[in-house]
Amino acid sequence: MKPLIWTLRRQVNALGWAGVGGALLLALSVAFIASTIAPLETRIGESKAEIEVLRTKLKASSMGVGADATGDPLANFYAFFPSLGSTPEWLQRIYELADAQGLRLEAGEYKLKRERDFKLARYEVTLPVRGAYPQIREFVSRVLTEVPASSLDELSLRREDPGSATVEARIRLTLFVAGDPAR
To answer: Could you give the residue ranges of the DSSP H alpha helices within the chain?
Structure first.
């Protein structure tokens, strides 16, 4: 044991304080890499594998019911749209989103429009709404985010009194649904 200690002291004296400090920093760097960076690299690898699994699931789910398994883009496009029979559920979702923002939807206008030789039908919904501007803006944003086949066609705002926080809005949305062409 004494020869080992004697050799170590001799090496420390030969290196000096700067050499010893450098060797200590090198040892700490190796320990840091082993304890921190290596586990992070393992996590990155696991995350990449999980991303690939999710991409595969997304591709499989985008085929959906009614989609062409051969990957026909047009068939996949039409498969994205909800069926005409699911319209009441989507309208219920729109009403729930309005309720979540504290808005009451008054009697609206609902029109189903079909065109000959066109595989999609348009369900136009016109809603008169009264509330604060931020509530109305958030409601429209949430509808466009959570009702996948909807579009905002018109939004008109009117305020009776400039000092009032209440805004009257007329919102016209279109819900595109997969339906048989009009006969």
So the answer is: 2-32, 38-63, 73-80, 87-100, 133-146
